[in-house]
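Protocol step 4 of 5: obtain the predicted structure for the target chain.
Materials: sequence only (see below). No template structures provided, no constraints applied. The aim of this step is simply to have a reference model before the mutagenesis design in step 5. Sequence pasted as it appears in the construct record:
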Amino acid sequence: DFEEDEIKSLFIRYQLYSKELKSSIDEHYGSGSYVKLYQKIGNLIRYHGKIENRNKTERNIENIYRLPEIINRIIKLLRHTHKKKNKATLIVIDAIRNPYEAKYFKDRYAAFYLVSINTNNDDRVKYLGATRKFTPDEVKTIDITESAKLINEHGETKEPNKNEKLYMQNVPACLEISDIHLYNPRVEPENNNALRAQLTWYLSLMKHPGLITPTSNERVMQFAFSAKVNSGCISRQVGAAVTDVNNSIRSIGWNDVAEGQTPCNLRSLDGLMSSYDPKEYSKYEREDNTFRNIAIKQLDALNNTKETNLNFSYCFKSFQNIKEKEKNQVHTRSLHAEENAFLQIAKSGGAGIKNGKLFTTASPCELCAKKAYQLGIKEIVYIDPYPGIAIDHIINIGETPPVTTQFIGAVGSAYHRLYEPLMPFKDQLELLKSD
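Step 4 output (structure tokens):
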């Protein structure tokens, strides 16, 4: 049963020890070595609960929560100590890099907010070089490791197997499920005013929901974020909204198959093998022997699992790429969310969106970026950076390139938790009045 002063002393001692340890590792093994070591240790603990060669120890899926369980014990200790003094307990966890660790806290604390802090990548690389002495190649290696990817003995990037990916750092996946998105410009390393202003905004709302109303960008992005759950894609759900020049919403869209076709999540390998329904499964899927053999192998592997109550959906694009031994996005059955939103406008008579905005939960690919450019979109606001060359190759060229903006704001349930007051403000003022 620690006292508050004792807990503070422990934290200070840990911070000093951690700082000295990082400096010592970098001094003996080169700049940035402590990052690689910490990444390795974190993955090992998630893999089997302790720092030991994973090849020598059987993994346990419950070890994914080992690190958040330790943090949770500290939180409970602090809450117990503060409760005796009738003080609130405010916790900042720096930093969560595995989505299942984030969901551990989301499931346990209604007041938990996952916050992502983004910046322009070029500015970020310059900042890390100036402050941490990392070379661009070292930053690239760190980014690969934090994106649930592996580096082989030849220095080449490779995908982990399905089990390894569960235990690894995966910052893009954390970004996708974040509640609040902030932007920290790194142009002036000592100038943190922009980030401080954003933190003040959302910390104030956390302590007193409903103090202010959402920004116009938050309002529109919330529609796009909500729209994505309509998607029947089994790989990733994406939402989009298009506004006119006055920021009024003209259409929303999500990634899904064309109207009248069955979404991928409602089709199944069993159906493909037995029903032969021409409305559900294409002539190609029903008659191409090589494609069907790939599907049969997948079905056999799934039938050997214990999860017999699941619908064994499948991704046509993935199977076709296995057949052709390539990674071709053209084979997707679904329209992209942005593409779908643009087509909704065309179906309704082409409401004017020139100089309007495109809001999307994932930055557009090359194909959708070209469509946005052609329609005269003046700004593209996105949450997740989409891998590819769309921004550098398609958008940032020509006479009227759209501005690309990383989204700042709250989305999802956090949008409602922050902006819905606990009671009408008028009633709160009445309660504050002296009798």
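Step 4 remarks: The two ends are 42 Å apart (CA to CA). The chain has a mean pLDDT of 89.
Proceed to step 5.
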